[in-house]
Amino acid sequence: MKRILSGIQPTGIIHLGNYFGAIHNWLALQKKFDCVFFIADLHALTVYQKPEELRRNTLNLLKIYLASGLNPDKHIIFRQSDVQEHIELGWILNCVTPIAELERMTQFKDKSKQHKENINAGLFTYPCLMAADILLYDTDFVPVGEDQVQHVELTRAIAQKFNNLYADILKLPQAKINKISARLKGLDNPEKKMSKSAASEYNYIALTDSADLIRKKIKKAVTDSGSEIKYGADRPAISNLMTIYSLTTGLDFSQIEKKFNGKGYADFKSDLAEQIVKFTQPIQKKFQAVSDDQAEKILSDGAERARKIAGQKMEQIKDAVGL
Questions:
Q1: pLDDT per residue over 128-167, tens digit each?
Q2: Is 113 an active-site residue?
Q3: N or C: which terminus of the chain has fewer CB atoms within 10 Å of its end residue's CB?
Q4: Of these residues, 176, 196, 230, 259, which one is catalytic?
């Protein structure tokens, strides 16, 4: 069975963009692939995290994984920092990767602008750690949004250089592009991606938002001129809201247009808010049912399974480079 690997940073809330850009797709992939899902707490350190918040967010993210339907019995789910081989291989790959390759990474450029007060070495070299995450598990496919394809391409380039220098032991992964993640935009700015680091909470709908807060956020969401509920490139705001409606209900755009024919934005927004509430409530209920102790046990068990795979791969790699 082919293997996929993917992870999310525990840097705060998980919103609908995160869910439909990653977790929703994992639910389908876990039926067809051998899956490794992790919580990327080491990557989160490139931006300062308050220690207690990082620990809390890590457990909450694991609970979101479980509440969404990921199966820790069938697949591996673990915390990145629990498997030391990630750091070990990350350093070796640092020593293989040309600086010029890292300098051209668009995410480094973007995050350097966002966090001018903390442009650290980890922010610059984290693509090497990301490559280690992937290569340790002989990953076949990495499900990503279009903004992450560059990282998978760099991983392939790093692996190929390692194989040429030492031994042909690193599998070259392929990006499995998810189109949905590129479509969900901010409620307050449909020209940019929905983002948990946005300045305003009215940019996103968190999976853990209360029903009243969801209604408030949707009511305040920006719309285009006019009032027709119609999808189109020239109508980015209503098209974004229709995308959310489609994802949470399963209706396609033509069905949504037909349902709201002759109705205006107020009717559409009101119904959209209720559909989101209906969608998120079962996830929230399952989220609340998972205790911290249960979450820690699942992460511990997952790390033990991950270390068996990563440890074997690391022995091959260390032997190849002479360690």
A1: 999 999 999 999 999 987 778 889 999 999 999 999 999 9
A2: no
A3: N
A4: 196
Catalytic-role residue among 111, 185, 217, 269:
111
CA dihedral sign, ordered 149, 208, 287, 298? positive
**What predicted TM-score, i.e. pTM, was given to this entire model?**
0.90
Indicate if 50 belongs to the active site: no
CATH class of 3-183+292-321: alpha beta
Tens digits of residue pLDDT in 166-201: 999 999 999 998 766 557 899 999 988 888 777 789
Q: What is the pLDDT of residues 83-125, one digit of tens each?
A: 999 999 999 999 999 998 998 887 766 766 666 777 788 888 9
- Count of residues for the chain? 323
Domain residue ranges of the chain, discontinuous segments joined by +: 3-183+292-321, 201-287
* Annotated catalytic residue 193: yes
Superfamily of domain 201-287: Tyrosyl-Transfer RNA Synthetase (1.10.240.10)
Give the whole-angstrom CA distance, residue 122 versus residue 248: 37
